[in-house]
Design goal:
Length: about 250
Amino acid sequence: MSIAIGIHAGLYILIVTDTRMCFYPPSRPAYFRDGIEKTLRTSTGLMTGTGYGPLLDAVKVRLSDEDPGDTTRISALCTDEQTRLLGSPLTPRARDAVARGTGWMFTYIGHPIDRGEDELTMGDLALRLGMAHACEHFEVLRLTTGSCPVIFSEQVPLDAQDALGAPLRDHHVCTEDDLLADSVTHNVLLCSQVVAATSEIDPSVSSSFQVALDIFDGTSARRIAVAPPVEQGQPVELRFDEDLDARGR
């Protein structure tokens, strides 16, 4: 279940998740664990998901074993693992979560589809934010600068989602590198407010959260950082990889 928030802020993409993993074993009470790191590095950038834990874990294992290469392959991986799980014995609640309640958010580098890779320059490449959700058959939704998608769990009514996401209307889009730190700080604060408010009405969401950042301006090296989980009000410590090429390697 849980929550995932993305902000495409131009020079960077911010992904924030809560840290709770819920378990619903057959014939036993449900339970949860907090402090779980939900955002992972892939060959395309960053990726996180919300929904049915075993489906999320299965896709994570596949991503660890192979290079998805592009968004089409990510969509296919999600569909493959969903089909496999739907063919196994599941409780009605788990089956519904697999069929309609699980989704992913990820970053990647995109380029014009009418040009060959050998013709591209750094200026042709752009940082992109994508989403793939079971309710949309994992068709990849490609989001543009200024987008602020939120994946809520099915436990949050639609009429409450707009109110919970209201702080994100004040998000910053960053166009200058010297404004990056202030922009990230501001947007992280907004996301933490959404996580905290959601945790008060959705038991599958913790108030603690995790932050990840993908930075690329199209001309310089790409930088990716994933911070360890923190509680509300604690400082976020972003740990950057060494400079990467445009494809995150």
